[in-house]
């Protein structure tokens, strides 16, 4: 993995490791084909610092992001370093609101792939009758579309829609997922994406689906949470995907 890049003297080791993981996460989103050109965002809260987080420099492709060029902002989107880049204002209302309100969420990823956006268009939202959809049972909130998320007055409504969940479906738009760290958030995003892909494919086949009972859905979701909580499962998955990406594409930076 390309974590051997030189750490700037002014950057703590803890912040640097976060920067390396976040930059890898951006590259993974591109590797899996989940980007929306230069748009969308992944943010990570800085350790032991309230109200500060790292985001992508707006205008760069995800493959151009490195640990050094990630920018530091506060929850209102104000830039806190001397980077020549700015952030994307459309991300601050969503990411800033979640980071300010949810102490248990240290990383937020926003995407709108074809499959996820298709599910977000449907009144019923996510099905929990597939292997991956069942893992999301009880974890999904829904927020009605109000246009591009630029305005402060929408923050409270988004947070109310999210509640204590970790997946926010932005209806007619896409999703935001958040977890305790980058590794768990990426694994959650992968699960959501797989659930959406299977749901879209199943819907195209025709015929009746085999439905799962609520008890099975609950059991599946609970077991998944147990698996990723302390076992290192999400870390292993994230690191394996970085190795796979760099084996195929070469070092990220």
TrEMBL record:
The record's annotation in Pfam families points to: Aldolase_II
- Give a GO cellular-component term: cytoskeleton
Domain of life of the organism in this record?
A: Bacteria
A GO BP annotation: monosaccharide metabolic process
Q: Name the InterPro entries on file.
A: Aldolase-II_Adducin_sf, Aldolase_II/adducin_N, Aldolase_II/adducin_N_sf
Q: Which GO terms describe its molecular function?
A: actin filament binding
Domain Class II aldolase/adducin N-terminal: residue ranges: 20-200
Q: Which NCBIfam families match?
A: PRK07044.1 (NF005451)
Membership in a protein family: Belongs to the aldolase class II family.
Query: Protein name, please?
Result: Class II aldolase/adducin family protein
Which lineage? Bacteria, Pseudomonadati, Pseudomonadota, Gammaproteobacteria, Oceanospirillales
